[in-house]
Amino acid sequence: MSALGDTLRALSDVLDSERIGWFVFGAQAVAVRAAPRATQDIDVTVDLPRHRIPELVRSLEARGLKQRHPEIADRLLAEGAVILLAHDSGMEVDMVLAGAGLESLAMARATRVVIDGVKVPVVHLTDLVVMKVLAGRGKDLDDLRALLATEQVDLAEARELLTQLEEALGQSDLLTALQAALNDVL
Predict the structure, then answer these.
(1) Closest by CA position to 101, among listed 153, 29, 169
(2) 98-111: pLDDT as tens digits
(3) Which domains are seen in the chain, by residue range?
(4) Angle 102-109/155-169 helices, nearest 10 degrees?
(5) 34, 92, 107, 114: which could form a disulfide with 41 (CB 3.0–4.6 Å)?
């Protein structure tokens, strides 16, 4: 098994055995839902109360996933709800704590897909599109275009979710970003 498979196996073993809701998103999810993209990490979201984080970190460490920056781990969690890990294989993992809203919806709709021999929950295509619009970086917009090119995205649902997010976040550029990406693909 590759570094990717070894890392996914360790994550799956720990998170599933502890009955923690989780899903893969980011470039690994894009590779499953649309087109492969080179990446050196795995992005996962976990549904876990903060008081259980130390217990989870210990379990992950026992499976070869160590904190990348233990000296600032508490500050990173306080500022952004992220746990930065590295597997013994060298693969890095960015673990995000789920919040309400989009992440809760994505958690409920993730489906199990085999990646490098390991069956893991992967974010739903439409939710991934919304996440890529929200991220808005160059590589995310490239991913967005690749996802839209599959012609399998529920555009009405994506627009509805983005409209809700625009209202909640006080933004007015999310639907415009989706349309611009669509125009690039068409």
Answers:
(1) 169
(2) 987 888 899 999 99
(3) 3-123 (3.30.460.40), 131-185 (no CATH)
(4) 150
(5) 92
